[in-house]
Amino acid sequence: MRTGEVTNVSDVAVVVVNYRTPALTVACVESVLRSEGGPPRVIVVDNASGDDSVARLRAAFGTEPAVTVCARDVNDGYTGGNNAGVGLARAAGARWALLLNSDTELDPGCVRRLVEEAASDAEIALATPRIFFGDDPERLWFGGGRFSPWRGRPVHVGFRRRAARGWRTRRDLAFASGCALLVRLDAVRGDPFDASLFAYAEDLDLSLRLRRAGRRIRYVPDALVWHHEGSSHRRAGGQALRFYLNTRNLLRVVARHARWYHWPVLGPMLAVNVVARYAAVAARAGDWSAVGAVGRGAVDAVLGVGGPMRRR
Hints:
Elements: E1 12-18, H1 22-33, E2 41-47, H2 53-61, E3 67-72, H3 77-91, E4 96-100, E5 104-106, H4 110-118, E6 124-133, E7 140-142, E8 145-146, E9 155-156, E10 171-172, E11 180-184, H5 202-212, E12 216-227, H6 231-235, H7 238-257, H8 263-284, H9 288-303
Parallel strand pairs: 1-2, 1-4, 2-3, 6-12
Antiparallel strand pairs: 4-11, 5-12, 6-7, 6-11, 8-9, 10-12
Helix pairs in contact: 1-2, 5-7, 7-8, 7-9, 8-9
């Protein structure tokens, strides 16, 4: 259903969750403030960093009326921080929330192009940009997304390849990346993310829930973002934490959305394409703590530690 709705800057709130990455968060917010058409409202959520993050953020943006810094007393991860930020966005009257990793920077036209595409059809619930690596700005981090319930592992099209290897036209997606994610707020009831996931695979879970409800997800390659990958978790526990959360959460999310007839193929695929694959990547790097984290993540997913595998 085409809408032709008109969206103003005041309809958009950008949410950035900070955890001990104040310099990156400042750079991210500064890039948002350079957006075409004027700066949107920016909500910076600090997840109990326990360092000088809040002081540095308030020093950087204390006189900027578009920016609000919200200091929380709990670190409940990407999911909890963004859920809190979305609540603040709704309270401020926003119709759209653009969720950004703190280690991203935006092209000035990014917000406008994402909202332009999402506002073109009331069935579009999510929109995501083309994302490049921050340390190699011509190399893709996300050039589109594929996901099959038979294989169980979401794929970033063109990952680590040059721009030509990604999708170059606007199109529907199987899932959107939470690294930079525009959310139509009236399409999501309550919190957008399952807070028990903490971080990783929450974007896949949200995407699959919305698609099951008949909503569309759009890829907007002319909206550009650069991503300094994984900075928060490198500081907060190293690769082991990332491997643990990726393994546990992906197994949980895929299992909760799978149908019975997927399992004869999906079960072996998860064992090989997720658990064995992640363990092999960690082993090649000589990171045996990360190898162990993969195993713990798999066991905890099966046992339901940190939340069940059933559908929400």
